[in-house]
Structures are given as C-alpha cells and as structure tokens.
From TrEMBL:
Record's keyword annotation contains Nucleotide-binding: no
Organism: Asanoa iriomotensis
Signal sequence extent: none
Protein name as it appears in the record: Membrane protein
Transmembrane segments: 38-58, 65-86, 92-118
InterPro entries in the cross-refs: YczE/YyaS-like
C-alpha cells in the first residue's frame, strides 16, 4: 500500500508543479523539454525515460524490484491524469501554493515509495549503480541532475524559482519523511 500510495502521490506532485508553472525539478525539466519537442504528454515521457534508464541498469548489474517496475508505469499515468483534472492556473498566489504543495507531496511520496523497500525508482537505481562502481554518490547525483537539467532547459523545460526551491528543499524534506515512512524490517510494506 505504501509503495502505490507513494507512486500515486509522486505523480500528483509532478502534476501540481507543472501547473504551478514556476519551474520544475531537474528530471522533470528534462521530461517537460522532451515532451514539448516530440509532442508527447509529460507523463508518457516520464514513463519512456524510466524504461530507457532501466536499460542503463544492465551494464551496472542493478536488479529492479516490484517498486521499480511499478514506478515505470504508475508515475507518468498519474501525472497525466492530474494534469487532465487540474486546468492551467493564472493566479500567482495559487501557483505558489501548488508549487509548495507539489514539493511537499514529492518528499512525502519519496518517503513512502522508497521506505516501502520494494526497489528503487529507475533514476535512483542508476545513481546507486554508478556509485557502487566506486564513484562518490554526491558527485554522481549532482552530475546526473545537472546533465538532465541542462538538456531539459535547452529543450524548453520550465526552469525558474520552483527549480531552485525544489533543489534546496527536497533533500532536507526527504531527510525528514523517509525515516518516518520507512517500513521496519520484518513488517509488510
């Protein structure tokens, strides 16, 4: 239940941040930029990117879990559903509220799905797989995030105040929610 609640909430959080239109997290700047260039929905690009990233796991000998596979399917579908249900919004105070809610929801969602212990998301597994090869996890994470942010920006993804807010807030927020939402060893997720 925690896994799927987290994945659904993650998709909703992305939809909220897209509707805020104040800037997205690095991977989502990439997803949005690709989506705008090739004419697909952002949710479909999220899912297709996850499949491509999973292929990068093969040489790293990473093994997906049920949570990994569910991530590939659920997050993008829920993102598109959220965007279908929530129309574009012009009022800046409402957009700021959507951004704050999206960042908070993203952190709670991460705590839920990672804390379920049923397999990392494709992008996190890429990071941990590269780090397991003897690279600093900080450098790997930073390098990946900067690369997808730069590519997404060039492709037209939304970079702005929300991008900075996400970058500054997500680590500390996940640091709070992950321990609270992690399933203790031996208990069902």
């Amino acid at each position: 239940m925690r896994l799927f609640a987290g994945l659904v909430l993650f998709g909703v959080s992305l939809g909220l941040m897209v509707r805020a239109d104040l800037g997205l997290g690095p991977w989502d700047v990439f997803h949005q930029g690709v989506a705008e260039r090739i004419g697909l929905s952002i949710g479909l690009v999220v899912n297709l990117t996850a499949v491509v990233v999973l292929l990068l796991w093969i040489p790293l000998r990473q093994r997906p879990g049920i949570g990994t596979v569910a991530n590939v399917v659920v997050v993008g579908l829920v993102t598109d559903g959220t965007l279908w249900l929530l129309p574009p919004i012009d009022a800046l105070p409402v957009r700021i509220a959507l951004l704050v809610a999206g960042i908070l929801a993203n952190a709670v969602a991460t705590g839920l799905y990672v804390g379920a212990g049923l397999g990392p998301g494709p992008r996190d597994g890429l990071m941990t797989g590269l780090a397991a090869r003897g690279h600093s996890i900080r450098l790997v994470r930073t390098g990946i995030e900067l690369a997808v942010l730069a590519i997404g920006f060039v492709l037209g993804g939304s970079v702005g105040f929300g991008t900075i807010a996400y970058a500054l807030a997500i680590g500390p927020l996940v640091g709070v929610f992950l321990p609270l939402l992690t399933v203790p060893k031996g208990q069902p997720a």
